[in-house]
Amino acid sequence: MEPERRAWVPPAWVAWGAVVAAFAFAAVSLLWATGSTLGLDTLGGSVERLGRGRDPALLAANAVALVLKLLGGVLALALVQPWGRRLPQRPLLALGWLGSAVLVVYGVLQVTTLALVAAHVLVPDEPLSDRALRWRLLLWEPWFLVWGLLLAGATLRCRRLRRGV
What is the rounded average pLDDT of the residues 151-161? Predict the structure, then answer.
């Protein structure tokens, strides 16, 4: 008789990585929501221009992004912390899977689009500086993808640990 195989459980650092990714990204949104222009040149285009002009709509959008990223961090914490076990499992896991899917899809679409711009296959409506294109292609957009993958790992870890696998 074969020994029972146990399902793989992602390591704890994956779940904690989702927490760190969320709160670090929230810190950037806080910076920009409060009107800072630090790092705006790494975004380029109309976002940089609107940010430097302290456009109220962009400041509000950054405030909304800040709240969503903080909620993403709390969700990741709920998946990894003991107090999260007191929350209803189905909604918690559903939010984890939904959040990770949105982040991964958004990240893949953004990275793919920017890679096509960098390869001169696509021409954006508004040109980006080489600096902004590099930063967005190598940091800002992949951050969504990495965060999504980490959140998926945290969700899988939570699910498997709760089931005792």
Answer: 94
Measuring CA to CA, which residue among 133, 109, 142 is closest to residue 48?
Answer: 133
Report the candidate in 63, 61, 79 with the shortest Cα–Cα distance to residue 21.
79
Query: What does pTM read for this prediction?
Result: 0.91
pLDDT value of residue 3? 58
- Gap between the terminal Cα atoms of the chain: 20
User: Phi-psi category of 44—alpha, beta or left, where left has phi over 0 and alpha has psi -120 to 50?
Assistant: left
Look at residue 131 and give its three-state secondary structure.
helix
Structure tokens at 113: 């689009």
Burial 3-35 (b: 16+ CB within 10 A, else e): eeeeeebbeeebbebbbebbbebbebbbbbbee
The domain spans of the chain are 12-163
